[in-house]
Write a structure and sequence with these properties.
Rossmann fold; alpha/beta; 225 residues; 4-stranded antiparallel sheet; 6-stranded mixed sheet
Length: 225
């Protein structure tokens, strides 16, 4: 489905350069569940943004279904990200002036969709267990509830790939477990998941595990194929 081929990302500033990601090769297939761990500053978040075509690599290629995504024009690239990739960032980043329903509806507003938007919203709100919060605004939700809304928003367009950056980092153990079960269900239904996390409790969900150090991606010896 998606592959990174010798991908490197270098940031320049004030007379020096930082190699955030170096020479990464990675294949992500349908129903993959990858966990990437590593120390702060090792390049994990930059790698995730490269996988999701939010950041252009300095060198190398990001290939989706045989097409180098950075050969697409801006419109096609934006459409690809919106339709095929679901992003779950470290913080929920919900729109504060929109209630839960409209935060989800927003994800379907950037292109023509072939599904019943209202029906999909109801389905996802039920999936994340927030049926009684549909008309509530983000500042009226707990941190865990906001994360649930962010998951539902990421799933709105039925993406092939879910990219999750520490989605349970500041949550209690029970809420973390519930959110991971939602991701597992999504993965079982066919979506690939790439998860960044420091939590040892989440290792059991991954089919492949990697360690990132100084921009390099290293496959864990205990990982499956």
């Amino acid at each position: 489905m998606l592959s990174l081929e010798k991908v490197t990302k270098i940031y320049h500033g004030e007379g020096n350069e930082v190699v955030a990601v170096r020479d990464v090769d990675l294949e992500v297939q349908k129903k993959d569940f990858l966990l990437i761990a590593g120390r702060s500053g090792s390049g994990k978040t930059t790698l995730l943004s490269l996988i999701g075509a939010l950041t252009r690599p300095t060198s190398g290629r990001v290939v989706l279904d045989g097409t180098d995504v950075w050969t697409l024009d801006d419109g096609k690239l934006s459409a690809m990200r919106n339709r095929r990739v679901g992003f779950m960032f470290q913080f929920p980043s919900l729109i504060p002036t929109l209630n839960v329903t409209n935060n989800l509806r927003l994800a379907a507003s950037f292109h023509d969709v072939d599904y019943d938007i209202d029906g999909r919203v109801k389905e996802l709100i039920s999936l994340v267990g927030l049926q009684d919060k549909a008309k509530v605004y983000p500042n009226q939700l707990s941190g865990g509830q906001q994360r649930r809304v962010a998951i539902a928003r990421a799933l709105m367009n039925g993406p092939d790939l879910i990219l999750a950056d520490e989605p349970t980092g500041d949550l209690d153990e029970e809420t973390e477990k519930e959110i991971m079960q939602i991701l597992k269900k999504t993965n079982d239904e066919g979506a690939a998941v790439v998860l960044i996390s420091h939590s040892p409790e989440l290792v059991k969900f991954a089919k492949r595990r990697f360690w990132m150090s100084d921009g390099a991606l290293i496959k864990r010896a205990d990982s499956t194929s």
